[in-house]
Protein 1
Amino acid sequence: MTIEAVVFTSFFSLFLVSAVLWFVFSYGVIPKIDKRMEDAGESRACSTDIMGLRVLMIATAIGVPMGNPLNHDGNPLIDARSIRPYALKAEKLIGTALVVSFYSAMLIGLIGSFFIPES
């Protein structure tokens, strides 16, 4: 198996996994979190949606530990500390799986593009 086939297969499989998780997270988890926050008197989790980025930002907020470059207090678009208490453990696991699969696919695609021949 060539390096190009490995890169393509790993990228495509991770991309499909992240697409399924994106769908599950955006239509299954986010509405529940929004409802819990509205019932508690809070505003909606991450009211700004930049071409679907809201899904990834909420998944990062609940699935990645605080205090690292991906999830920090200085993000002007989302307040991760206010969202975290409203997410259940299973929802946090789905968010973590989404973040890991999405960023892994992007990293493999970026690094793997250097191994694909130009001809």
Protein 2
Amino acid sequence: MEIQQHEQLLRLLADEFAKQTLSVTFTQWDTESEDDEEVAQFQGQLTEVKLTDNEFDEKDLLLLFVAADEESVEILMEIPGEEVDLATYADGKLNIFGTEAEIVLEK
């Protein structure tokens, strides 16, 4: 299923992924060089989601997790301000497409 509305994405995160143990893969690309990417992987529970406008006419998506080792993990990624292809969801796997990052949440 394609997610194209911000409200639909927030509802899906709250209803399907909040307070559950998830596998998280966060990939971020360096704007200077497309070859340079950073990948972080961990297991954790999604505890908070916040979406705010930023100064670049985009949206900032803040995801807070409690990792398996009880450490807090904060991921802030910019997503399109327009309601376009924001994410895909199928078989318990959510891919959220940011402007310079992607996060994959799996139940």
